[in-house]
Amino acid sequence: MQSLKSIxxxxxxxxxxxxxxxxxxxxxxxxxxxxxxxxxxxxSLLVLExxxxxxxxxxxxxxxxxxxxxxxxxxxxxxxxATRNETSEIKGQAVTPVKVLTIPLQFMDSxxxxxxxxxxxxxxxxxxxxxxxxQVIDQIAFHSMDEKLEFxxxxxxxxxxxxxxxxxxxxxxxxxxxxxxxxxxxxKKLESQHRISISRNEISQISL
Amino acid sequence: MQSLKSIxxxxxxxxxxxxxxxxxxxxxxxxxxxxxxxxxxxxSLLVLExxxxxxxxxxxxxxxxxxxxxxxxxxxxxxxxATRNETSEIKGQAVTPVKVLTIPLQFMDSxxxxxxxxxxxxxxxxxxxxxxxxQVIDQIAFHSMDEKLEFxxxxxxxxxxxxxxxxxxxxxxxxxxxxxxxxxxxxKKLESQHRISISRNEISQISL
DNA sequence: TTTGTTATGTGATCGTAGTCACTGAAACTG
DNA sequence: CAGTTTCAGTGACTACGATCACATAACAAA
Lengths: 208, 208
What we know:
homodimer, alpha+beta, 3-stranded antiparallel β-sheet, 25% strand, elongated, DNA-binding
């Protein structure tokens, strides 16, 4: 686990050692569920490799995309739920092969107390995710579907650091809790404005 | 400030003493703004008395009700923003006369380090608010206006611990970023189902 | 190349909610 | 009490987005 220090450069040596001692590495395949609604957390998760997509789940199986976790991120929910031993109403799915470090919840207190960087890290995790949730609320509270779609695409391009994303209209519709036809039509509109270009399974950014 | 211990019974004596030493009590009148979009936080806020209504603000002045803060709550945003010295995009308005204890941000670290109850308190604050935000997302992502309205009314009844709330249809429409006519019509529908009763400036719970 | 599957395009229809214009009713003010 | 303001009710119209029913296009596998 020599890579831990490179994934979390802000952590000091003693914290790294402690994490190596108490943590356990778990691997997931693309498509695997890391978190599932109603599941108990027995540990917190730190993402070492890969990308995890987090959704909010509705009562009837609807889903709404919240944000991605990647290398170096912690799952805010797993810290929250872990410290309270509560259930999750969030779905986390690996969108690439994923490696995570799991920290049993009984160590959270001492980590928090003994390592200043850890507590900063946890606070920073909360802060970031809190703000992302607020942004999501902005989108769905104040904006119409075409603006939500634009915001969604921007986030994908930004996060994946690519001018092209591989995704179907149906997947987008699912992420936005909308329907394929609507998304197709709106994508067409964006294309006709020369802001994106569309081909099967792919959308490319022009000027978003 | 003999009351601090009664408002925060989970805090130990030394922490209470420290808070009394570094904190400052500020009072607001009903209707005053405690937080305003774009404002810098220089301190964290603990609510000692009264009720504060928190909104998310849209780009064009729209607003969306998030949650209430009351006696014994901390403003999660003020902790977040304080620790990073960033700006807020949240609006906090006193809905009753309000008394808050302000903690200059430079003390946050030492409080966190020296007082275990404080760090639990901060984490619990985050956890609670995080979950409230997720619930808000549920409502606006998965539910239609009549369901949002029902959820809104339930929250008001629950939070205010009263069978009757004093509010105009216009205020509800603002809180839900909708329009008065729509809210009026939906309230009528709820009344015709004998789930609420309506009179001028008042809505009473029957079976929500 | 044929066949099957998955992804996308498109018209028609419908319901929800936002808007406009107006009426009516209740409370407040002098 | 008359006049004014604030709050609520209602019909007409419109737009957005969900849904249905297909048609077509791209790709994959045989």
